[in-house]
Amino acid sequence: MRYWVLLVFSWMTLVSFAKEYVKVYHENGELKEQGWIKNDKKVGYWHQYHANGTLAAKGKYTEGNRNGYWFHFDTSGAKSAEGRYQKNKKTGWWLFYDDKGNINHKCQLQKGIKNGYCLKYRNNDLKSAEKYSKGKKIKEWFSFASFKRENNLADLR
């Protein structure tokens, strides 16, 4: 009897921890996304693709939610954005790139909304800075000297 109880318990444990690797395809037959499913939720590292087959995004899921650091790419394969997700919402500093691979702007986000600073660049030079509170722009600077004078640069971390 103990043997059967142990066997059933072992089988239930294996089933509850079972993960399945899945691939999903676009209607044109190109791979759309691939990664692990556990208990009908995305888990672990995933790769997502544009309909033309190029990588669109890669990062980690936890219990069906994007969590941790993610990279996003345009249809030509160039990096377009990167940053951290927490429960499917963009959070912390996000970097956005132009078509030459240079940082175009970077913003502090909270629950997917601009909340903090956004710094805008042209040819790798800071051109302007904006401050947001809960998605609303409250101030903009076009001079780094005035921006530095009016702000605690430790807030940029």
TrEMBL record:
Protein name stated in the entry: Membrane-binding protein
